[in-house]
Design goal:
single chain; about 190 residues; alpha+beta; 4-stranded antiparallel β-sheet; 7 helices
Length: about 190
């Protein structure tokens, strides 16, 4: 009989803490309109699809790099590394209280037409995914099995937070196009 490599269940502690953090964030979110939800979801998923093996902390800056065709986050700012080591500096990221991420692109990246076309194509694919979902709730990243542990846990927290916000806005059960139509109607 094999020994239990985790007899005290200590590996579950980070999982439970990350999930609790996401659920707490969902309790205090304001209502958001569809354009804000879409932007936050896209940006957050872009960040969460990058490589990192640490537990992010709300309000702390992280730096995104691209090397060998992959994106990754680091605790170390670009002025402390050599581009040969870290790759191309993409921008500064920060985890918000509501489990969404911000990404401030570096000036060189924001003015790079090739990268911006790549980002626009990625955004267009994301919009198609939203449009094909039966409801906005179905488009939330509740369980993204393709993501590593921390990314998956924070995607779950993001889904709870945006879901609560959309519930308050009355758009959670709507399709993406219905929610956009509602926003257009409200603006008129």
């Amino acid at each position: 009989m094999a020994e239990n490599p985790n007899p005290d269940g200590k590996g579950q502690v980070p999982v439970l803490a990350a999930l609790a953090e996401g659920q707490q964030a969902a309790l205090a979110v304001p209502p958001k309109h569809i354009e804000q939800v879409s932007l936050e979801l896209f940006t957050s998923l872009f960040v969460l699809e990058s490589d990192f093996g640490f537990q992010p902390v709300v309000g702390r800056p992280y730096w995104m790099y691209q090397k060998d065709g992959r994106f990754w986050l680091s605790h170390i700012p670009p002025q402390e590394w050599s581009p040969v080591v870290y790759g191309r500096y993409i921008g500064e990221c920060e985890l918000q209280d509501d489990m969404s991420w911000t990404l401030m692109l570096a000036d060189a990246v924001a003015s790079d037409e090739t990268f911006m076309h790549y980002l626009e194509a990625k955004r267009a694919h994301f919009e198609e995914t939203l449009e094909s979902a039966d409801s906005l709730e179905d488009a939330l990243p509740v369980h993204e099995s393709r993501l590593p542990f921390y990314q998956r846990a924070y995607a779950y927290g993001l889904a709870n937070s945006l879901g609560a916000s959309m519930e308050q806005s009355g758009i959670r059960e709507l399709t993406y196009n219905e929610a956009r139509g509602l926003l257009t109607h409200q603006e008129e």
